[in-house]
Design brief:
10% strand; two-stranded antiparallel ribbon; 4 strands; 45% helix; mainly alpha; two-stranded parallel sheet
């Protein structure tokens, strides 16, 4: 686990430096096309169920309301925001969360308070790891917003089908963790490939 943290620190510093021009361009575009704050900050549940403030580039209208799950095509998502979400550019500020130790490059995606609270027994195993920028469940359901858009009641589908499936995958990741597995997940994320391992189903 020490190697995992050392990798996170080194890679996040590298990413913050390399992507600095990209941050500047995105920040400028948000200011021009989406009046309001550049960043979106939200409480998320981290390691050992501790709350932290996750930071992302803002992709939605200010004071939009709505649920905590996002569905492709929602009117609250701006055109620029939709482009950022498509290419995961809104996630780039999370490098800061990784650097300070709130997150890791690989791990279960951090949930909003409420979802993690309902985890019981062995399902809480995933909370023993820092949440990740990407992960096994993130790869499996990289088209999550499209899946939710296909259902008349996306919140019910998420709560009854999608979320339990992601919990199972994330717990399998924790049980099978290795540094090699993290590197594999990062590479698969960058290449847009799916994981076929038994533990990721």
């Amino acid at each position: 686990m020490i190697l995992k943290r050392l990798f996170d620190i080194a890679a996040s510093i590298f990413g913050l430096i390399v992507f600095l021009p990209v941050y500047a361009v995105i920040a400028f575009l948000i200011k021009v096309k989406m009046p309001g704050p550049i960043f979106f900050r939200q409480n998320r549940v981290g390691r050992d169920a501790r709350l932290f403030r996750m930071v992302k580039f803002r992709t939605m209208k200010v004071n939009h309301g709505g649920s905590t799950i996002s569905v492709k095509g929602e009117s609250r998502i701006t055109p620029l925001g939709a482009t950022m979400r498509k290419y995961k550019l809104d996630e780039l500020p999370e490098f800061w969360n990784i650097l300070v130790g709130d997150m890791s490059f690989v791990g279960p995606r951090p949930d909003v308070p409420g979802y993690a609270d309902i985890l019981k027994g062995d399902d809480r195993l995933l909370l023993s790891f820092r949440p990740g920028l990407t992960g096994a469940a993130s790869i499996k359901y990289s088209n999550e917003e499209e899946l939710l858009a296909e259902h008349d009641d996306p919140i019910r589908y998420n709560d009854e089908i999608l979320y339990p499936a992601k919990v199972r995958i994330n717990n399998n990741y924790v049980k099978n963790w290795s540094f090699f597995l993290d590197i594999k997940i990062i590479l698969f994320t960058l290449l847009g490939k799916k994981l076929d391992d038994e533990w990721a189903n």
